Amino acid sequence: MTDPLWRQIAEDLRQKIEAGQLGRDGRPLPTEAELREAYGASRNTVRDAVKWLVTRGMVTTRSGQGTFVTRKIEPLVMRLSTEPSSQDGSVTSESADSRAGVMASGPRVEILQAVGLAAEELQLPGGATILSRHKQRFIDGVPYSLQTTFYPMTLVEQGAARLIRAENIEQGAVAYIAEALGLKEAGWRDRFTVRVPDADETAFFSLPDDGRIPVIEIIRTGYDESCQPFRVTVTTYPADRNQFVMSFGKVPDEAIESASAAGN
Asked: What CATH code would you report for 76-263?
């Protein structure tokens, strides 16, 4: 029995994508009109073929932009940190992978009123002034994470003036606050959530706009020695390019690497 035309078109496109004939790494698929002309097919037939490719993760549709060959991204495997906070306040320590081309954007600093998550985690009344430091992380030009840390403005007023400047803090903000104010992070709490990306995250990470690739959101709240929160860091990782490993005690690096291989 002959396959329906939409399936024949989908199979032909699949073979061309795998052979690299239609481009790779996020390049656009021919337009719907071009596909209709190339295969002598109706609009619905072409759409059914493209939908089949979408469900198999071979192409991605973006509203108002078109359909693109799915970028093949090698997952980054990171160790969840059980040590004192890393320099940027995130939950991860050194990557289990050795990956070149890691780059973080310079921080974008904003002064805001405390509402929602920031007000709740920092235990501040609504309308209190806070500042946020926002960074984007890339590996070989591919966006891998978004991170925003919120601090009470009182830290700046007490002398941690560099927090409000749009510049990198070489030793890390947590260490800088300890040096400037003698305010040390004595502990932290992490909360993990898997959710559908919002519109900004979908655009930044170039994710399918149907929400089928979730993001992992990790909220770390840091506490001083009197158990008062003084910073909350929200880091968002798209699930198609990030994996996490946690180990405790004596675990050989080979075991972590094998976890990475299994995840791939």
From this structure: 3.40.1410.10
Chain segment 101-149, per-residue pLDDT in tens: 678 888 999 999 999 999 999 999 878 999 999 999 998 888 999 999 9
Separation CA 215–CA 208 (nearest Å): 12
Distances in Å between the alpha carbon of 39 and those of 12, 36, 164, 166, 242? 10, 5, 58, 53, 38
Distance CA(118)–CA(198), nearest Å, equals 18
User: Domain 5-69: which topology?
Assistant: Arc Repressor Mutant, subunit A (1.10.10)
Tokens 């719907």: give the residue.
32
Comma-separated ranges of CATH 3.40.1410.10 domains in the chain: 76-263
Q: What is the mean pLDDT of the chain?
A: 85
Q: What is this structure's pTM?
A: 0.74
